[in-house]
Write a structure and sequence with these properties.
The structure holds 2 protein chains of 2 kinds. By secondary structure, chain A is of the alpha+beta class. Helices cover 46% and strands 25% of the residues of chain A. Classes of the chains: A alpha+beta, B alpha+beta. Chain A: InterPro entries: BolA, BolA-like_sf, BolA/IbaG_stress_morph_reg.
Amino acid sequence: MVRPEDIQTYIQEGLPCDHIRIDGDGHHFEAVIVSAEFAGKSRVQRQQRVYQTIKDRLDSGEIHALSFKTFTPEEWEAQRG
Amino acid sequence: MDAQQVIKEQVTGNPVVLYMKGTPQFPQCGFSATAVQILKACGVNQFYSVNVLENPEIRQGIKDYANWPTIPQLYIKGEFVGGCDIMREMFQAGELQQMLEGVAQA
C-alpha cells in the first residue's frame, strides 16, 4: 500500500517544493503543494506539472485518488494570513 | 474513427461534456460523483456524460487528449476545463458558474 510519505517523495523528486503536506489512508490522498514553479501558470498547467511527477504511478494504478491544492510561496503566505 | 476523433466530436458537438466513471445517476468513483454534484450546483442538469468504464479506448484516449492522466474531466464548449480539484476551486471562486452561464442551454 502506498503511504503519504511515498507520494511526497515522488513529487519532491520531480518538483522543487517550498512546502508539501500529504494526508491519506492508503487509498485516498490529499495534498497541499507550494512551489515557486507555479508562478504564472494556470490551474490546469499547475496540476499537469504535478501529474508529471507521478504519471507512471497513476497509470499503473499504484496511486488512484490524489486530490491536491497548489500555491506559489506568495499565495501560500497570503493564505496563511 | 479512432478515439481521438470520437473525443473531438463529443467535446465540440456538446456544450458541456463530463468524462466520468459511472453515470450521473450512479457514479462509480467519489471524484466523479463530486464533479456531477458541482455541475448540478451550477444549475446544469443536462450535460453530455461519457462513462469511461464502458469504453476502454476512450478511457485511455481522454488521458492523452488533454494531457491529463485522471478522470473525471470537464469540457465546456470544446475546451478542457479541469478535473475534480479544479472544478471545486473554480466553483468556490464563482468562476465555474460564470463559465457555465447560458452555455448548458445553448
